[in-house]
Specification:
The structure holds two protein chains of two kinds.
Chain A: H1 2-21, H2 49-73, H3 76-93, H4 100-112, H5 120-136, H6 139-144, H7 146-152, H8 163-169, H9 172-185, H10 191-194, H11 199-203, H12 208-221, H13 227-231, H14 234-244, E1 272-273, H15 278-283, H16 288-317, H17 321-331, H18 342-349, H19 354-391, E2 400-401
Antiparallel strand pairs in A: 1-2
Chain B: H1 4-27, H2 43-46, E1 55-62, E2 68-74, E3 77-82, E4 85-90, E5 95-100, E6 107-111, E7 114-119, E8 122-127, E9 132-137, E10 145-150, E11 154-159, E12 164-169, E13 174-178, E14 199-201, E15 207-211, E16 216-220, E17 226-231, E18 248-251, E19 257-261, E20 266-270, E21 276-281, E22 294-297, E23 303-307, E24 312-318
Antiparallel strand pairs in B: 1-24, 2-3, 3-4, 4-5, 6-7, 7-8, 8-9, 10-11, 11-12, 12-13, 14-15, 15-16, 16-17, 18-19, 19-20, 20-21, 22-23, 23-24
Classes of the chains: A mainly alpha, B mainly beta.
């Protein structure tokens, strides 16, 4: 039976690969003999559809394997080797594209731009990890994300961050997510891809400043484990939400916790919640009064966020090239005569006049007006809820992984002496 | 403080990360854009070493067309189509005859004493004095005829719109068509991204068709079987560059090729084997980014180039 399975998968792989290899270049590549430097593209070269589906299949297999290794096998070693595979396949071989994190933008754009059709691959890359997380926790982060893998492998001496700092920095992914959705919805930019610190490393052709960004994150990751995943990743926000409701999640101990505390320092991500001391909580004065104040403040935070969004929408909309160009040409019309200004010259060469450009810019700014207020309101809500969470008392008797923040890397299970 | 060194290091990294993000975000704006760093300078390819130029321009003459379209040569006469007219001039440029056409012409071919003019969705056949002999339709909603070639019994029509070559008898009976697809994996079909799709028949009665997307000249049997081909890609002198070249070609008396390119406008000759031979007219002779001249050659291997931008016939003689 095993042999049959092996033959089936081998044949499937060969068929897919051969079909893809049969594709041929439509045009001969330009031949440059003068040492011309070709511009690097944001996305890698298009891939045969069959290979794209093969990538989805690989993701599905890796997610299944990661979930099995974490929940059933409880093997840190297995997760580690799986993440090495992920780094090689989805990172270096697939050039870090398409990734589930960036797929947020494709999904967003497909909702807001009727002319944009999201590919099935992008949709599945977005949905599959979320679906798996809803059932098994963040096993995607553990073994299927190349960005997570590259950071996970270089953790040397992780330091524990104070809780307040973890909470404060933990707001950045929400800001990043809001901006990414806002920019994608308005057709402005795919900022998640643009500021992906590792994609240039995967492709080995990063611009200098992006290489600096990637290396900085990696250096930081030696001491602050997975800084991008914890304090930047916008997809992590969605995964965190899903994981909180996960049906089966990694547990530190396979059966009853014996409170040995061996696992307390095992998590480099500060994602283990300690048992709560009810007496201390009562003594600290955190009570219903404070809870009510914080709860009442939530609408205030939302209103403040909406206000800030409304105030900043003009500034934010300038990130859109059409808006910026329209403003620039109105305020500085002589720039039309600058032959070296590639953006202006491209606009002039397109034959478009100022009227449609200004009209388009107005429409985009209108979208930013609404979008910025929604984003601001959302961030206000997140801040309000985060503050409220700091004073909500949850009774815990054991050492438990924080379901939202835990990457299911299974480091902690190796520290637990309890056997099944 | 515990881990003081690490914390200072981390703070420095935070500053670097924030600085990179901010600088990148604000620097990529239209008023701060640098001149295109990836602009490809083709100026150097416009210069051709004098020893590689095998022809000299001996004369040129105006043809009086607002919109010249094509040139063909037969019996020491030039047949030039343009506007809604066909002009016959001798090799010195003297007008011998002209006759009106019912529609704007797209291509012209002369074989012995018969003139073939392609107009939209139609081939018109005339005798030397301009009497209509016959006409037949070329079907296809997207049809765009770019070249015609004829021999004793056949008329081949290059249809850039439908990306195929259609073979007719001289009575207008369709004898076949082909799209250049050879057996699996051997060669792509005709790739014609722009209306530059030429064909011609040489002294050996071989049908040659340009596959412009592949920068190739392909030889087909009359029933559309690929017999052989040669190709040359590159902006260097030996190659064809961009999309879609060679735009036009013709044969010299001994079967060598004369090719004409757009973009980097130049006329060159190639040996029968497809090996680069020399330059007829270097890019400096033409308008920058101009159209590729249509070319014809007489029995003395003088080359007549229809310069669409200057609306003249330019004559190039071997040096």
């Amino acid at each position: 039976m095993k042999k049959l399975k092996y033959i089936f998968w081998t044949v499937a792989f060969v068929v897919l690969y051969v079909a893809a290899s049969a594709q041929q270049q439509r045009f001969p590549k330009p031949e440059f003999e003068s040492g011309y430097e070709q511009p690097t593209t944001i996305t890698p070269e298009p891939r045969a559809l069959s290979l794209e589906y093969f990538d989805v299949l690989v993701l599905l297999v890796v997610l299944s394997l990661a979930s099995w290794l974490v929940l059933k096998k409880r093997s840190r070693q297995g997760v580690l080797w799986l993440s090495v595979f992920t780094l090689i396949y989805f990172g270096f071989y697939r050039d870090g594209c398409i990734c589930s994190i960036g797929a947020i933008q494709n999904v967003t754009l497909s909702f807001f731009d009727p002319a944009y059709a999201i590919s099935l691959t992008a949709l599945l890359f977005f949905l599959l990890p979320l679906a798996f997380t809803l059932f098994f926790g963040r096993t995607f982060c553990a073994g299927a994300c190349p960005l997570g893998a590259i950071q996970d492998l270089i953790i040397i001496k992780p330091i524990s961050l104070p809780k307040w700092l973890n909470k404060t920095l933990g707001l950045i992914p929400y800001i990043y997510l809001s901006l990414a959705v806002l920019f994608a919805a308005t057709g402005t930019d795919f900022i998640i891809c643009r500021y992906d610190p590792f994609v240039g490393i995967f492709r080995m052709e990063a611009k200098f400043h992006m290489a600096v960004l990637g290396v900085s994150f990696l250096l930081m990751g030696m001491f602050v484990a997975r800084p991008y995943c914890r304090f930047f990743c916008p997809y992590g926000v969605l995964l965190s939400w899903m994981s909180r409701f996960s049906k089966w999640h990694l547990s530190i101990t396979p059966s009853a916790c014996i409170q040995c505390k061996l696992c307390t320092n095992s998590c480099p991500f500060d994602a283990i919640d300690y048992p709560t001391n009810e007496k201390e909580v009562v003594k600290s004065g955190l009570g219903p009064k404070r809870f009510l104040v914080y709860a009442v403040l939530i609408p205030v935070w939302v209103a403040a966020g909406v206000f800030v969004g409304e105030r900043t929408h003009t500034w934010l909309s300038k990130a859109n090239p059409d808006v910026y160009l329209a403003e620039l040409l109105i305020s500085n019309p002589e720039i039309k005569n600058d032959p070296d200004n590639i953006d202006v010259q491209t606009f002039l060469a397109s034959g478009k006049t100022m009227e449609p450009l200004v009209e388009e810019a107005k429409i985009i700014r209108g979208k930013f007006y609404i979008g910025s207020m929604i984003a601001g309101g959302f961030l206000g809500l997140v801040i309000g809820m985060t503050l409220l969470n700091t004073i909500v008392f949850r009774k815990r008797q054991d050492y438990l992984p924080h379901k939202g923040n835990c990457f299911s890397c299974a480091r902690c299970v190796d520290y637990c002496p309890v056997e099944k | 403080m515990k881990n003081k060194g690490i914390i200072i290091f981390l703070l420095l990294l935070v500053v670097v990360i924030v600085a990179v993000l901010v600088v990148d975000f604000i620097s990529d704006r239209p008023d701060r854009s640098n001149p295109n760093p990836f602009a490809y300078n083709v100026e150097e390819f416009k210069n051709v070493a004098p020893e590689l130029i095998l022809y000299k321009e001996s004369k040129n003459f105006r043809i009086g067309f607002e919109e010249p379209v094509a040139v063909a040569i037969q019996n020491n006469k030039l047949y030039i189509a343009g506007d809604k007219e066909l002009k016959v001039v001798d090799l010195s440029g003297k007008l011998l005859a002209n006759f009106p056409l019912p529609e704007k012409p797209l291509a012209v071919e002369v074989f012995q004493h018969e003139i073939f003019v392609a107009v939209k969705n139609k081939i018109l056949m005339f005798d030397e004095t301009g009497n209509a002999l016959s006409e037949w339709p070329v079907p296809g909603n997207n049809s765009l005829i770019t070249a015609v070639a004829a021999d004793n019994n056949n008329v081949f029509v290059a249809d850039a719109g439908m990306r195929k070559v259609i073979r007719y008898s001289k009575n207008g009976e369709m004898l076949g068509e082909f799209d250049g697809k050879a057996e699996e994996g051997a060669l792509h079909g005709f790739i014609v991204p722009s209306p530059c799709f030429d064909l011609d028949i040489n002294d050996q009665e071989e049908l040659w068709v340009v596959n412009p997307g592949l920068h190739a000249l392909e030889n087909y049997t009359y029933d559309g079987q690929l017999r052989t081909y040669w190709k040359s890609t590159g902006v260097n002198l030996e190659g064809f560059s961009g999309c879609c070249n060679p735009s036009h070609f013709t044969f010299l008396s001994d079967g060598r090729y004369v090719t004409s390119e757009k973009g980097l406008v130049r006329i060159k000759t190639y040996k029968r084997s497809g090996e680069f031979e020399g330059v007829v007219a270097a890019p400096a002779k033409f308008v920058d980014e101009g159209r590729a001249p249509d070319v014809a050659a007489d029995s003395n291997d003088n080359i007549y180039a229809l310069d669409f931008d200057k609306k003249i016939i330019r004559v190039f003689e071997p040096k």
